[in-house]
């Protein structure tokens, strides 16, 4: 037996492995393009990248999620999508090279792409049924067929093994490989995939354009109960201090939606049902707008906000009192004999958020908001309707893109974040932050303005103090209070001496509770501790 028969030489041309890798990439490109086109007909969220990304977010351990939010902020979803695409590229390249030796097995391996994508789509909480598996399944089948034929163009001529590993001599065909056939097929596949992907994007984009048009047509009615004018003195004119009202474009966004849902307000509906609901109701967006609206300034805080972090903002919201709506449906709080103690709100993307019925109905301005800072809600912040409850962290109160409200109990149901080890109930903690000077700043000796914001929603801020190094606490000047549901700006005129110094801030809320110095992480019910910055005075 000769050496060639013992171990056939598969790739007599040094370019053959590279072309195998290219074949795998083209097959992967085709899979994504076809899947996107099919998803446009099913629903965009069923596409493999979005479905796999959503499933990855759902299964990511809480510490990893916190790390991603802390390090990447709102870019964490882009990083995840790029990671998924990178993994797909490597998988496609490996399959292409593998298929050079085992053509049928390599092509069949592409079907694994479909299995993963389809399983992820069906496992999503917003899945609408078996049709969600179609984009990944159809894309994988097309890719498998394409890879099979592309590899076939590379295997013409020479000794090539079949999938059993035995040698097959095709040298009589007179060519090392079918260069012309491969180039034609590869070029056609690339062009067809690009066209298919663009068509899918266009069809998906048409739905987004319809949603955008519905938002553009919204005219917010004048509120029956407008917000009071922001008091004079509530806005400090100090450079680098967070503005009293956070512009929509700067308002933080933390959620699990890989792609921001674009909901058409003309087809949106909200269902209210569940335990203790004697009169279930389904409302359209127009019906909600015809109800009595109120306008309020309310500060929202994300539970993922580290001490001194950026995930807090204040806006002027307009919406319907949630307590009034629930009362009309026959709901009573537990303190008045109500059967339900939890409001479970559901988003169009499957997110579930559980809020205490008692807090929602205790007189605070819990809202189904339709407007933010004088305009319809931006898509990123929940258009057409979102929920918010002053005094509670967002993960237990601020459902965006809301479509369903169910009355239930904490004993009967755990919402999304509770299943992931976060607390069932989470009132906002008393916190303060130094906005200026920035960490490691180098101000000149003399008068240095230290300033920032403090918040304790639904309790209010009573006092803010600043300490330099280990010195005594000095009371800062508080800006005027708008309401106990909004943050307050503060300032302290520091007579700074040269050298390195540590500035620390603490707040006292209206109940007399002083911001704790005990440092804790965000899990399970929000971070605690005091914010400090280190500066060098020159």
Could you characterize what this model shows?
- With 538 residues, the chain is α+β, with helices and mostly antiparallel strands.
- Helix content is 33%, strand content 22%.
- The chain has twelve helices and 20 strands.
- The protein has helices at residues 3-6, 16-42, 48-59, 62-72, 76-101, 103-109, 111-123, 134-154, 179-216, 285-289, 322-328, 357-360, and strands at 159-161, 167-169, 269-274, 281-284, 294-301, 312-321, 342-347, 352-356, 367-372, 375-376, 386-388, 402-408, 431-436, 446-455, 461-468, 473-475, 477-478, 488-496, 499-509, 532-537.
- It has a five-stranded mixed β-sheet with strand order 4-3-12-7-8. Strands 5, 6, 9, 10 and 11 form a five-stranded antiparallel β-sheet that branches. The protein has a four-stranded antiparallel β-sheet with strand order 13-14-18-17, with no helix packed on it.
- Strand 3 (269-274) and strand 4 (281-284) form a beta hairpin.
- Helix 2 packs across helix 5, helix 2 (16-42) runs parallel beside helix 9 (179-216) and helix 6 runs antiparallel to helix 8 (134-154).
- The chain is globular.
């Amino acid at each position: 037996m000769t050496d060639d028969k013992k171990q056939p030489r598969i790739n007599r041309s040094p370019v053959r492995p590279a072309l195998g890798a290219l074949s795998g990439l083209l097959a992967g490109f085709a899979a994504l393009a076809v899947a996107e086109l099919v998803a446009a007909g099913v629903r965009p969220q069923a596409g493999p990248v979005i479905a796999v990304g959503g499933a990855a977010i759902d299964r990511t351990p809480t510490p990893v999620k916190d790390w991603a939010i802390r390090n990447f902020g709102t870019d964490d979803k882009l990083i995840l999508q790029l990671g998924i695409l990178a993994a797909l590229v490597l998988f496609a390249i490996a399959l292409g090279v593998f298929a050079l030796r085992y053509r049928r097995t390599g092509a069949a391996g592409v079907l694994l792409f479909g299995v993963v994508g389809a399983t992820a789509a069906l496992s999503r909480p917003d899945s609408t049924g078996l049709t969600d598996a179609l984009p990944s399944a159809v894309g994988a089948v097309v890719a498998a067929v394409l890879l099979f034929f592309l590899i076939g163009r590379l295997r013409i001529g020479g000794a090539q093994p079949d999938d059993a590993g035995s040698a097959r001599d095709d040298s009589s065909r007179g060519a090392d490989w079918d260069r012309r056939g491969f180039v034609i097929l590869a070029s056609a596949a690339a062009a067809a995939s690009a066209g298919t992907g663009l068509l899918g994007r266009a069809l998906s984009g048409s739905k987004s354009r319809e949603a955008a048009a519905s938002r553009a047509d919204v005219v917010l009615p004048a509120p029956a109960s407008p917000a009071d004018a922001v008091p004079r003195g509530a806005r400090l004119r100090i450079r680098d201090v967070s503005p009293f009202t956070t512009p929509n474009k700067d308002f933080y966004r933390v959620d699990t939606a890989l792609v921001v849902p674009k909901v058409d307000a003309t087809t949106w509906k909200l269902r209210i049902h569940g335990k203790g609901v004697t009169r279930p109701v389904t409302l359209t967006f127009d019906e909600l707008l015809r109800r009595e609206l109120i306008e309020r300034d309310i500060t929202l805080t994300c539970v993922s906000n580290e001490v001194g972090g950026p995930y807090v903002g204040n806006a002027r919201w307009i919406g319907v009192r949630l307590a009034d709506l629930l009362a009309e449906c026959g709901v009573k709080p537990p303190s008045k004999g109500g059967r339900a103690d939890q409001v479970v709100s559901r988003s169009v993307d499957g997110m579930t958020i559980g809020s205490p019925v008692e807090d929602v109905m205790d007189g605070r301005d819990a809202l189904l908001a339709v407007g933010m800072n004088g305009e319809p809600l931006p898509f990123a912040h929940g258009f057409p309707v979102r929920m918010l409850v002053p005094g509670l962290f967002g993960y237990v109160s601020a459902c965006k893109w809301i479509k369903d409200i169910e009355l239930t109990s904490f004993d009967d149901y755990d919402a999304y974040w509770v299943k992931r080890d976060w607390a069932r109930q989470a009132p906002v903690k008393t916190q303060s932050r130094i906005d200026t000077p920035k960490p490691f700043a180098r101000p000149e000796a003399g008068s240095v303005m230290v300033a920032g914001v403090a918040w304790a929603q639904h309790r209010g801020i009573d006092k803010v103090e600043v300490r330099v190094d280990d010195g005594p606490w000095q009371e800062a000047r508080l800006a005027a209070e708008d309401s106990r549901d909004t943050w307050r700006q503060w300032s302290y005129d520091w007579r700074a001496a040269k050298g390195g110094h540590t500035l620390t801030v603490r707040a006292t809320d209206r109940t007399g509770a002083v911001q704790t110095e005990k440092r804790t992480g965000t899990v399970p019910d929000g971070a605690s501790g005091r914010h400090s910055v280190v500066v060098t005075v020159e």
